[in-house]
Amino acid sequence: MEHDRFRHPVSIFVGLGFPAEIHGVSEAYTWLNEWPPSKRNPTHAIALNACKAALAGEIDAETARTALVACARRANLLAPDTGTIVGANRPTQSTLYRRPVAAKGSFARGGEIVPYAIGRGTLSDRDNFTR
Fold first, then answer.
1. Contact (Cβ atoms closer than 8 angstroms) between residue 39 and residue 75
2. How far is CA 4 from CA 11, 50, 78, 79, in A?
3. What DSSP element (H or E) covers 21?
4. Domain of life here (predicted)?
């Protein structure tokens, strides 16, 4: 049944948040049918009806895919593409260097973190530095 396959699979989160791919209308119909009734909403009903219509040959698979994507997005279950995940792990110019953050009981002076007990200065001098 090649006519019920999507051109591009839909990535969704399942179970404990693991991504899975739905490749066709029959998989989408099964996934939508397994939703608990308490979590179903009008977007779910539209996607389920679109899958039924696509299986009956009344609409094409890409129309059902669009309804499935809308339903998964509305439920916050639409996973990003694999290329997006890999690209997000690359460091950018702004994340290559992070300024040190002063911990409680210390203050930052000139890029270094100095504990209050070691820092030479009065209380008023300490307040001039960023925390």
1. yes
2. 17, 12, 20, 21
3. strand 18-24
4. Bacteria
Q: What is the pLDDT of residues 21-58, one digit of tens each?
A: 999 999 999 999 999 999 999 999 999 999 999 999 99
Question: Which of 8, 11, 10 lies closest to 79 in space, CA to CA?
Answer: 11
Residue with tokens 């499935």: 68
| H helix intervals, 7-114 | 25-33, 42-55, 61-74, 82-88
DSSP state of 2: G
Phi, psi at residue 73, to the nearest 5°?
-65, -45
Q: Return d(Cα 111, Cα 105) in angstroms, integer.
A: 16
CB 51 within 8 A of CB 70: no
Region of 68 on the Ramachandran plot (φ > 0 left; ψ -120 to 50 alpha; else beta): alpha
Task: Please identify which residue in the block is written with the tokens 């694999």.
Answer: 82
Pair of tokens at residue 90: 């690359």
Spacing of C-alpha 107 from chain mean position:
36
Rounded Cα distance between 36 and 34, Å, is: 6
* 8-state DSSP, 127: T
